[in-house]
Amino acid sequence: MTYLPQIRILVPSAQVSSYTTGSFNLPSARQAFVPPLPSGTAVFAGGTSNSNVISYIDIATTGNAVDFGDLTQGRGAVSGLGSSTRGVFCGGNNGSNVNTMDYIAFASTGNAIDFGDLADVSQRPATCSNGTRGIITLGLSSGGYGNVINYITIATTGNGTDFGDSTQNHGFAAACASTTRGVVGARFLGSNTDSNVIDYVTIATTGNATDFGDLSVGRIQPSGTSNTTRGVFANGSSGNVIDYITIASTGNALDFGDLTANGLGSAAASGSHGGI
Length: 276
What we know:
5-stranded antiparallel beta sheet, disordered C terminus
């Protein structure tokens, strides 16, 4: 199985209240960031051939990525979430699925440090946060396709704690979040079945997920991103389709437009003036 490099962490600028990237939410706190990282920085980690490389770009400019450091364990299919000061990389696959969590501090470059372990191994878990608590929907784990949701407190280290269950057993989903809600959609149910189901949780509490609505088309391995108001699910097995939702309300996703190319296992980041 081949894994593409993944965009997973966004260091936000001060213009808006929060961002998401890959599948997670980062509240704005420009004062928290000091050189060498500029505000509006996206961080890439892991990828093909069990890479351990972490690199970053400044979204507002063009140019090549710059080395940040290394993961504690090289792997593909890793997902990320974060706060204004810390990014956490969750799960992945290095020939077998892993339960590893690493973290980095945005204020300086350097190698990732062990954060703790997920409750189970998980390849490409769906991740998001409200800037304080991270939500990890494990998906594909040791028992196959599952529905377990873990949570962590980003400012501290420790193992994932049970949050509740998603509405379906699944794998390879995507997530986005506001400061209140985490939303997961576009999942693989096994037996070559793609689901269009979207569900959500209230991040500050624990409990099972609730049905949100449906995507315009079922898909697996899409990308998810958002600001505090609108979430976007793009690409995946359905082709280049982009859907959007209003996170504060429930209902079916609406057509946003199309990407220029199809992409399976892609990732996304957002800044104050748009996403990539």
